Amino acid sequence: MAHDTVHQAPAPAPPARVLLPQIVPALVVGVAASLVFVGGSALAGKLQNVLWQDLPDALGVGRYSVFWMIIMLTCTGVLVGLIVWKVPGHAGPDPAPLGLAGAPPLAPAVLPGLLLATGLMLAGGPSLGPENPIIACNIALAFWLGRKFVPRLPGGLWIALAEAATIGALFGTPVAAALLLSEALAGQQAKGPLWDNVFAPLIAAGAGAVTTTLVAHPTLDLGLPPLGRTGWADVLAAMVVAAAAALLGMVAVYAFPYVHGAFLRLRHPMVALPVGGLVLGLLAALGGHLTLFKGLDEVGDLAKDPDGWSAGQFLTMSVVKLAALLVAASCGFRGGRIFPAVFIGASFGLFAHALVSTVPPALGVAAGVLGMLLAITRQGWLSLFTAAVLVASPAIIALLCIASLPAWLLVTGRPQMQLHEDGTPVR
How far apart are CA 392 and CA 32, in angstroms? Predict the structure, then answer.
């Protein structure tokens, strides 16, 4: 017996008159998000110079002496602990359950404390980046101001604009935002064509990226010697380095709930954060000053002289920085994990180059960053993009696509470096 097949008509595409009114808000959010990021980073950089150059010079103390690193990181823990304890809003929620995006907008009253805690963290040396707090602040500002002044646009649109704008500003290109948007939409049942859904967020990301480029002139290219003609040995090396870096990253992922739980048992931010700062100071004494801060500038220092350290030194920096990231993310400092993971992956890739000289530095760095980011962020497109832009070589893209496959098999379906509210790991 024949049955009639009923075909569901595709969702109609929003007409141009729906998309056109989103252009101006997207441009405004993009520019504003970039200025928040650039301004906050600039202020943190000035404070960093005072804390790590002017002050130790005035006191006659070595800028990166063991004594000064331990003192500065412990004091940073004390100051951030005071903010989390006393400032209204407590600098936002515990960052352990939060991912790169997707959290509900914070109340405006929370933002001053969050921005202050983030600036002190960036200047004081803990191994976290600005991405998560800056995204949270921009989402809150866009949602609050957008709903107030342009109430006809849905609240979810303001969140999407702020997320895309901040990611575009952070990376200096809208491509990173486009990749993250496509990955997010793949897990949702979005209505209408993809480009209708990403139209306004891409405008915001482009505006954010252009503003950052014009104001701050950022670059992610490390200036490593480009790859020449690749061979089968390069394919094998990329797969091995990426997989090994992913395994190293998963050590921190599996340890995260236990380390976070240990700091949580200290019960008070004025205990957990100073203790975390002290531990970070001891780790910096072990790994050296390059293992401080968010890691992006320090990656550039490694890339300037990829043969300047031994294999043991590169491995030590990788392990110490990974431990520092784990502690900083567990004890309550407000920050993101992408940029420290880039340093860890780059240092691990240079370890592979120092161990096996036939592994080109550019290949080692790109594959190491790819594997580490896959383990720490579980964002496939972001990991591929970040690893590729660090190395100015078209040949690296094909190698990274192949190398991502075994690395992804090692991390998919396993715990993430993110916790549920009850402390159990997200899978």
Answer: 30
Can you give the length of the chain in residues?
427
pLDDT digit string, tens, across residues 308-328: 999 999 999 999 999 999 999
Distance between CA atoms of residues 227 and 427, nearest Å:
36
Interval 120-149: pLDDT, tens: 999 999 999 999 999 999 999 999 999 999
pLDDT of residue 117: 96
pLDDT at 403 over 90: yes
